[in-house]
Amino acid sequence: MATIEPDPYNEPQPGDLIEIFRPAYQHWALYLGEGYIINLTPVDENQAAAMSSVKSMFSRKAVVRMQLLKDVVGGDTFRVNNKYDDNHTPLPVGNIIQRAEVLIGQEVSYDLLGNNCEHFVTLLRYGEGVSEQATRAIGAISLVTAAASAFSVLGLINTRSRNRPF
């Protein structure tokens, strides 16, 4: 298991957003203090398996769990990333922590594009759910859909021109 080297300039503080770098995506958590975070995990997995599961990206339900940051990070890396602070005003830390603690153990809806782990923690920190990951994914899906439509139309035009009698 990889060790997490403390960075005195980037030590998590209560209410901070924690970005955890998984092999195929970023998982997000909110730092509560004393080594604990709150995050979303799949309903049908135990806590140990949930920490690194790609399955979590495709679940429709999630459970809000309080876990040790080091256990959730496992062999991956993380950083404090309050990247939305320039555009959104964080709520007072006491309010953030109180809002988070009320949700521990609850089952919530989960949707990769509209209600994911990043939306969850930004909703706690700012009162508004935001996710650049989801925005990028929606943009990529839109681009693929537009390209597929264009190729489909071009194929239809090409087929019609080959079937002309003249």
From TrEMBL:
GO molecular function annotation: N-acyltransferase activity; phospholipase A1 activity; phospholipase A2 activity
Write down the Pfam families for this protein, in alphabetical order: LRAT
> Which UniProt key words apply to this protein?
Hydrolase, Lipid metabolism, Membrane, Transferase, Transmembrane, Transmembrane helix
Question: A GO biological process this protein is involved in?
Answer: organelle disassembly
Q: Which residues form the signal peptide?
A: none
PROSITE patterns the record matches: LRAT
What positions does the domain LRAT occupy? 17-133
Similarity section: Belongs to the H-rev107 family.
> What's the superkingdom here?
Eukaryota
* Record-given protein name: LRAT domain-containing protein
Q: What does the record give as the organism's lineage?
A: Eukaryota, Metazoa, Chordata, Craniata, Vertebrata
Q: What does UniProt give as GO cellular component? A: cytosol; endoplasmic reticulum; lysosome; mitochondrion
Transmembrane parts of this sequence: 137-157
